[in-house]
Amino acid sequence: MAQAESENQTRQADLDRRVLDLTNQVAGLTRQLAVAQTNLNQSYQDYALLENRLRRDVAERLVLERKFNNPSELRAQIENLQWSPAQEVSADRIYAGLDVEVKSNTFHVIAPQ
């Protein structure tokens, strides 16, 4: 009887350890699941932001394409540039303030002073 009780206690201790191990595994998996869910939620938010940005960019592109493909709109813009140019557009003005010097097909960076 004492031997049976001893074996019973040993089995109970083994079962208790196994239950504790399984509990720790479940807790670890729960933490991993929470981290995965957080990452997934962040990915959905990033995706939504990118999708909105793409939709806005496509809409802007379509508006510009329509203006460019509209002959009267294009003529009005050309007329505006001919009669009231803000400044003459030249390579020198484009590169002014960029600390680069452009000649023909070559350029070099001007060292800051």
Summarize the helices and strands and which ones pair or pack:
Layout lengths: L1 H68 L1 H13 L7 H5 L4 E4 L2 E4 L4
Antiparallel strand pairs: 1-2
Could you please describe the fold and organization of this structure?
This protein has a two-stranded antiparallel ribbon with strand order 1-2. The longest helix is centred in the N-terminal third of the chain and has 68 residues, at 2-69. The mean pLDDT is 81. It is mainly alpha-helical. It is built from 3 helices and 2 strands. It is 76% helix and 7% strand. It starts with a helix and ends with a strand. The protein has one domain (2-87).
Number of E-type strands = 2
Name the quaternary structure.
single chain
Structural class: mainly alpha
How many domains? The number is 1
Provide the helix percentage. over 70%
Q: Number of helical segments?
A: 3
What is the H/E order? Answer: HHHEE
Separation of termini?
98 Å
Radius of gyration: 36 Å
Beta content: 5-15%
Global mean pLDDT? 81
Strand order of the largest sheet: 1-2
Give the overall silhouette.
rod-shaped
- Unreliable spans: none
What can be said about the biggest beta sheet?
2 strands, antiparallel
